[in-house]
Every structure is written in C-alpha cells, then in structure tokens.
Protein 1
Amino acid sequence: EAVRAQLGQTGDPGGGDFHREAHASILALEIDCARRGGMLPGALEVLQALRQQGFKLGVVTRNSASAVRTICSAIDTLCDVFLPREVVRFVKPHPEHLQRALDQLHIPAQQAVMVGDGPIDITAGKALGLKTVAVLTGGDRLESLLASQPDLILDSVADLLPRLAESGVPER
C-alpha cells in the first residue's frame, strides 16, 4: 500500500498494477505455505470442543481467508465470527481487529479471552483488556511471548481444554 501511494504521488500510472501483482504474489505464497504447514496440532479439536460446550468463538487472523480455508475448509462452521485480514481496515496488533470480533459476538472484553501464538496476539488482547493466553506452538520463542506479558502460557493450544476443566469454567 505504501509503495502504491508513493507511486501515485510521483504520477506513475503503474501503482495500481504493482499493487495487484504484489498482492497476488503474496497470496500465492501464503496459500502455498498454508498447504505445507497445516493447522496447529490440537487446534481443530479445541475449536470443536469449545463449540460443543457453547462458547462463542471468533477467529481473528492476519492471514487471508483463502489461506485459512486452505488449511481448514470448515472454518466458518467452527466459529461464530471469522475475521481474516481482508475484511478489516486494521489488523492485529491494532485493537480494531479484535474489537470487531467482540462487537459481532456481543461479548464485553472482560468476558473474553484471546488465545494466540505470537506477541501481536497478546498485544492486541491486552489493548482491549482481555485475558490473554499464549501458546508455544507458533513460530515465536518463549522469550518474545514472555515479553508480551500474557496472563497464561501453554505449550500447545490443545492444553487449553484441560486448563478450562481445571478452572471450573461453566458451559456457556
């Protein structure tokens, strides 16, 4: 977007073409990585279990809808709100991304938990006053997650269900 704007200021008519080609290249790379990477271990089972327990679920991601649907074609049935990057103006760590999910779920921040595998997830959650859970199954190191000061750190997203059971959280 910045390069397109700069090209527009110089009067270069190729800014729009550059923007389209760059986004197409990024999307192709992202989908290729999604095919090779897959979902985090345990993520599907956690989403299914939380859904069955009656929790309202939102998936807020800086990934594209196409990439997410490449790894999980059922994403829309596994959550109440799915917000990939192309449907919001500002993505995480900007709090608007999460706030939009909370608004669509009709849940106040005090009753929500942000579960994420990177510091930007924790930063976005903290900005809105959510409880935050960091999981180590992403690409970030423990040190960077600790620096973002999550309320809880788990080895895997799969560890979320036993923690909820231990805490006695009622079904929703």
Protein 2
Amino acid sequence: VYKKVIRELIRFQIIAGKNFDYSKCHQHPVFDKESILFDLNYFKTNYADAKNINYNNDQLKTEFDIFVNYLLKSENKYFMFRDFQARNIILMNNEPYFIDYQGGRQGPLEYDLASLLFQAKAQIPEKIKNQLLNYYLNLVRLFVPVIKEEFTEFYYAFALIRVLQTLGAYGLRGLIENKSHFIESIPFAIDNLVYLKDRAMVLKKL
C-alpha cells in the first residue's frame, strides 16, 4: 500500500505539479522562508515554551536562520501536498485516495515523503523506511534527475522540520488545549527526533 501511495505522490509532485497554477494556492503559493520560519516558531511557542524548556532566544533565532537557509537550497519547484500522512489517505478497494491538501503549494520533493514516513504514531520500522525511500528514489529518477546522496541529506533535514512542526501541533492541541490523543502522540515524535539527531546533517552546521 505504501508503494502505491508513493507512486501517486510522485504523480502529484511532478506530473500534476508541472503545469499547476501556484498563484491559486491559499494562503502561501510557495514553501518559502516565511513558511519554514512559521513552522519552527510554531514548535518554539507551542512546545518548547509550553514545556518551559530553557533556551537562548538569540542563539535559537540564529540557528533557525541557518536551518532555513539550508532548506531553501533544495530545489523548490514541485507540488507539495504539505500534510502528506496516513490520516489523509483513504483506502477504497485497496486503492489510495487523498484528502486534506488545502495547504498545497510549490515546494521541494523531500518534504512530503518525509511527512509520510516519519508520521509519529505510524512507527514505520527503520528497515521499511529505508526500503520505501529507495523505492521512491528509483521511481522519481524516471522523471527528474536526482542525486541520491543529496536527496537523502535534504530528506532527513525536511523530516526534522516536519517532526518539529508536528510537535508544535501536539503542544497546541495537547499541552495547551489538553486533548489526550495529542499528548499520547508526543513520545512517538520525540523518538523520531532522537532518530534524526545523528542523521540530519544540518544539525552539524548549527
């Protein structure tokens, strides 16, 4: 099923995205610096602050800027679903259908794949994650030239920002609004952060 979903994701990103009028996207036509900083500050406000985590605000701002500038080096010209996760995929007769793409915009290839494979409560085993990453790479290279090592490095970086954004959502809905489902999801997202600590090379630049 995940392989079917990945095939459809590539169709979204490259085939459908090729002649897409991104000016019609609401609220942001492009996953740009403003969008990325929004996600990082969403995490800072709704999770770090809600948990009373101590940090140097000036240093964090500098590191956020470095992180944003790094992510913006990824090719940013494809359709980005924005919330590509299992909860937004409906199976009917074993075929996937998709909902909740109103946040779609122009963006990088890596983000949606990272969103799918690093969904916190899905807990996809590392071996399967890697198999699906390689499956995606083998397919996407039929349509666009992709360098595996470069793609993988950005993939882990976008996985990191996705996990931080998810923690921001869990913080808002769970820690602040006290909704138990979101509180229960926090440990799974933290596990993803620990996993990414040694894989997201961008952390070595901060």
Protein 3
Amino acid sequence: QDTAPPVLLEAEPPMLCTRFTGRRIALHFDERVKVVDAARQLLISPPLANAPELHVQGGNTVVIDLQEALAPAPTYSFTLGEAVVDLTEGNPASGLTYVLSTGDQLDSGAVTGRVLHAATGKPAAGVQVLFHAAGDTAGIRRGRPLYAARSDGEGRFTARYLRNGGYTLHALGDRNGNLRFDLPLE
C-alpha cells in the first residue's frame, strides 16, 4: 500500500523565479497524480479575478493555466492545499506552495497568527485570513483583498511574500469562495 504523498520534483518556471510573464506553470511530481477539488483547495495570493484552470498532463505533471495576466511587480503564492493527490491511494501533497514574482525581486514580508472563534474562543480552522489596505474597513464586503491565507486545524496561519506596508486583517468563514463577507452565515 502506498502511504507516501506525491513529491514535487521540479517546476517550470522554477520555484521562486522572478520576472515571470507567462500564463502557464507546470509542477512535475515523482508519481502519477490527479487534481481534486481545486476550486476549494487552491488559494492564490494576491487573489486573481479569474481562477486558473488546473489539469494533469502526462500523468505526473499538474499544469496551472492562468486565465489572466498577472500584475507587474507582486510576488504570487499558489497554495494547493490538498488539491494534488496520488493516483492510486489518494495521498495528498499537503503543504505545497509554489511562489514566483512578476517583478525583479521576491517580496519578503510575512505575518503569522492564530484565528480564534469570537463566540467560543476556540481555534477557527479553515477560515480565510484576508489582508486589505490599512484602514480599509469596507473591503471585506465590497473589495478584493490584497493577500489571503488560510488557517490550519489549530487556527494558525502564515502569510508570506507580502509587500512591506500596513494591512487590516479579517478572518472569514467564506462559504462561497469569493473572498468577501456577503452571505448571512459567513
């Protein structure tokens, strides 16, 4: 029985590359893989208006086809969650994040924290942590966040590759995946 998750061997363009101008990213794994629940699992920061298409090519390569050009200068992180699993046993390649920059350098800011449920004080797992411009109190309802992260099972989150600056953070149980507070139960 296969209990080992898929391992990323190589990426095109290479991980942590700069001056990226393309629309295609290829992630090569050590075994045959499939993509599951990409719409919920994939988290791109800074968020894109149009979700990329993910598909498997040649059995062991996951291709991310971007549906729009990336903005000039930011560092983008593609957190795959548990979207990539091995073909035979479904072991997820958990914790996989691919990073690139469209600018001359990688942004180096980072924020770590823990999200607790306001009513219970218990860790809030699987919620979106949204970064808006400092002082932007309406962005959670109407705008798109500058960056996003997801809390783990203990409510912990880490957002890396941020531009230096000030941010207003919101934690959101985003039921419809649009990174906005727009449903009654979110």
Protein 4
Amino acid sequence: MDGFINKKVLKAAWPIAFGYIPLGMACGILAQKTGFDWFQMLMMSTFLFAGSGQFIALAMIGSGSTIMPVVMTVCIVNLRHLLYALILNQYIAGQSRLYKAFYAQEIVDETFAVNHTQFARLGKEWTGSNALGVNFVGHVSWILATVAGLFLGNTIYIDTALVSYALIAMFIGLWSFHFVSPSLVLTGVLGGILALVLSFWLDHMLNVVAATIIAAAVAAAYRAMAEKGAEE
C-alpha cells in the first residue's frame, strides 16, 4: 500500500476530498428529493463517477425523463473526459490494460487536474500507483459524501444553488497549482473567457470542451513561435 496510498498521495488529494464534501452532500440531497434510496445512490456514485453528470441525470430523472435521453445527455456532458484520457495517456502508456481500465473509470475534472500537475512537475517521481491513489481517494470521498447527503436530506436543508459556487471555488484552488508561469495563467484565463462566450451557442458542457481545445491550441502555437524566435 505504500505506493498506492501514502503521504504524497494524500497531500495531493486532500483538496479534492475536502471540496467533495459540500458538492457530494448536495448531490445526495438532490437524489433523496428525486426518490433515490441509499443503495441506488451508492451504485450511481460508484459506476457514474462524474459530478456534473450525476446532477444532470438526477435533474432529468426528477423531471420524468426516460432513460435514453438521460444516458445520451450524460455521455455528451462527459465527452471532455476523453480529452483528459488522451492527455494523460502519455504518462501511463506503459501500464497494463487492467490498470488503464480502473484509471479511466475515475478520470474526472479534479483528478485530472491534480495528476496532470503532479506528472508535469515530478516526472517519474509521480508514479502510476500515485496517480491511481489520487483517483481512489477522490472516488471514495465522493461516494461517502453523496451517501451522507442522501441520509441527511430529510433533516437538513442545503440550497443546491450553492453547488455552483463551491464547484468554482474548488476549481480555482486546483487551478492555482498551475500558477508557475504567466503563459499557463493566461491560457487558463483565455479558456475561461472562451467558455463563457461559447456558452451562448453551445450547451451540455460542449462549450467547455471547445474552449479547452482552442485555448490549448493557441497556447501551443504561441509557445512554438516563441521557441522558433529564440532559435533564430
């Protein structure tokens, strides 16, 4: 277990675990209002580890939607995870298929942000086991928070509108790990602005996917031009 859950892993994963407390509890409360029991919540959080996907699925189920629109919408919302997997594959390409299957199941925005930062900073010092450990801590934290929220749904009231603010705060905290150069900060700002602008035309989180790709392409082109200029 030393290479799976250790001090290094816990230090990297604690912002995720802490941030999931209000988000997961709000998701559990929404599930309770929708009519889920604790076992259904447990299964949903285990096999659909995607915060935004779960919130959307619960909202659609609560409004009486049939299963296929729910499935299709969740798939569209989580398309960005394919982009995450492509980016992270360069670091885990040598791992087994079984490892990749478990790892892919637990790629979400937060675990991607933490693991990508650690791989970029530490190189080979951040191992595949460390990355899987971060995913595991995040997933378990989410499961516990959502199930706890469901049990507390009848006893306490949490305005689910606050979830958006909590989610933004957590992402700002995770993004702060990238404050190592002006170019990375500007790339993040550009991505955020583009996501807001594209939200007028794209929905179901496609604006985030498009903004990420465009901002990353602009940053890569700028870096290539800068390196070419330095060589000349």
